[in-house]
Amino acid sequence: MTVRQLANNEGFEALALPEEDRVIDGVYIGDLLSWVMGRAKADNAWITIMSNINIVAVASLADVACIVLAENVSPEQKVIDMANAKGINIIKSALTAYEVAVLLSKNN
């Protein structure tokens, strides 16, 4: 599944899609940024409720396909702007982290 395909699902909203054709391969769920940096794999969809500017840097270091903000978490505009500038995809969902992971597991 590509990031664009995930964003087009009901209950999802694209916030930044500078690399919408990236293919999602796996999922990492976590909110402790240092753990995500060391454990998320390249091309994972990273599901979190963290929304501060540091998520962009962590996503870049881990080379994840996208950040999925669960439970309707909304970042500030400066986070979205930074994500677009750095080539980091961000999607928002009203679903819980578990529900997003289940959806992704059915489509991978």
Describe the structure.
With 108 residues, the chain is of the alpha/beta class. It has a five-stranded mixed sheet, sandwiched between helices. α2 runs parallel beside α3 and α3 packs parallel to α4. The radius of gyration is 12 Å and the shape is globular.
Q: How are the secondary structure elements laid out?
A:
Blueprint: H1 3-7, E1 12-16, E2 27-29, H2 33-39, E3 45-48, H3 54-62, E4 66-69, H4 77-86, E5 90-93, H5 97-107
Parallel strand pairs: 2-3, 3-4, 4-5
Antiparallel strand pairs: 1-5
Annotation keywords:
single chain, 108 residues, alpha/beta, five-stranded mixed sheet, 19% strand, globular
State the distance separating the first and last CA atoms: 6 Å
CATH architecture: 3-Layer(aba) Sandwich
Name of the CATH class:
Alpha Beta
Number of helices: 5
Proportion of residues in extended strands: 15-25%
Rounded mean pLDDT score:
97
Q: Judging from the principal axes of the Cα atoms, what is the shape? A: globular
Helix content: 25-40%
Helix/strand/pairing class, anyone?
A: alpha/beta
**Unreliable residue stretches:** none
Brief rundown of the structure:
The protein is of the alpha/beta class and 108 residues long. It has five helices and five strands.
